[in-house]
Protein: DUF3293 domain-containing protein
Organism: Vibrio astriarenae
Amino acid sequence: MNMTNPLLNAYVNVCFRLSEQDLADWRGDTAVIITAWNPRSVRLAQFQNHQRNHALKSDLEHFRMFKLLVGNENFDWFEESYWVDISLKGGLTLAEKYQQNAIYWVDKKQVFLVYSVDKQLIYIGEIDDFLP
């Protein structure tokens, strides 16, 4: 995708809202950030998004995880998401199941956007760059 693509810009220009305690408690080197909201970037009603994320949470119940919000700088747009200790391959499998265009991969505090279709990793910054 071209960097001028509005969807790509939306994925890259995000903030992660999570508690400092959750971030401090994280012991792994890697994580996937994933949601089930708005499949293929089609906005759904909030109750539908909550139902989808509840199903995703059930799929993640055997993994260490915590909730976070992924949104724009002001958080007037956001998606409830999960920071989860799962392999990149596992995260991409769930992204396909929940019809997500992309997920985030965190590797030693480096953040990558990963497209579901072609599995392309795009380095987008350090985790601190995405925290308000």
